[in-house]
Amino acid sequence: MDRNFPQELLETIQKADRAGAQAVIDAWAVGRPFHRVIPELLSPTLETFGRLWASGKDGVSLAEGYVAAKVAEDVLSRVLLDASGDGTPRPSSKGPVLVGNVEDDFHPLGRKMVAAFLRADGWEVHDLGVDVGPAQFVDRAEETGARVIGASAMMFTTAKNVAKLREEIDRRGLGNRVQLAVGGAVFKLRPELVAAFGGDGTAASALEASALFARLARRASEARGEVPA
């Protein structure tokens, strides 16, 4: 009987068993190109885990969330090393971006997944962590030259703080010069909130985050007059 690797991986994460998760991934990788682990195993498993986390029905613990994030980081590190061909990670090449959970939001899994995928695709990621205020986001954007801020919020109550971040960006006269990407369960359930709270775009999954950031970075560069419109 064929093994159900996504289910096995999910179960190890739910047991907060990081070593067990790696064993499942290693077993999956036998006879397969390792880079395929992301779309074929890791992403669907973490999407399922994220839905369980957001629903709150299965008592998902912080320990499980921590392990899920670490498993994603472990896999991305291995993919980067395999891709480099010489045992060193691929250098950042696409420019600086910021990611963080908005003020009062303490759900790091989605943000960490996005950060991992962005780094894997060559972005210089500045991860500000959880409970990040609007001024802190914009201060760091100005310090680093980031053209895109990625703001994560899981619930409607914290997603409303995206609007405060939008106000801070506009108050400083940055407007389209700094683009605001938003993500989190609430924006999947209610995509109309992206525009309502001042976001410039969202991605359906962490796998699609890099393409979104690339579009928004180009839009910001056009607003700055740095590339042809």
Describe this structure in words.
The protein is built from eleven helices and four strands; from the N terminus they run ααααβαβαβααβααα. With 229 residues, the chain is of the alpha/beta class. It has two domains: 5-84, Orthogonal Bundle (Methyltransferase, Methionine Synthase (B12-binding Domains), Chain A, domain 1); 96-223, Rossmann fold, CATH 3.40.50.280.
Short descriptors:
alpha/beta; Rossmann fold; Methyltransferase, Methionine Synthase (B12-binding Domains), Chain A, domain 1; 229 residues; 2 domains; 11 helices
What's the layout of helices and strands?
Blueprint: H1 5-14, H2 18-29, H3 37-55, H4 62-84, E1 96-101, H5 109-120, E2 124-127, H6 134-144, E3 148-152, H7 156-159, H8 161-171, E4 179-183, H9 185-189, H10 192-196, H11 209-223
Parallel strand pairs: 1-2, 1-3, 3-4
Helix pairs in contact: 1-2, 1-3, 3-4, 4-5, 6-8
Short characterization:
With 229 residues, the protein is α/β, with parallel strands linked by helices. Helices cover 55% and strands 9% of the residues. The protein has eleven helices and four strands.
Helix content: 55-70%
Shape: globular
CATH class (first level) name of the largest domain = Alpha Beta
The CATH superfamily of the largest domain turns out to be Cobalamin-binding domain
Number of strands: 4
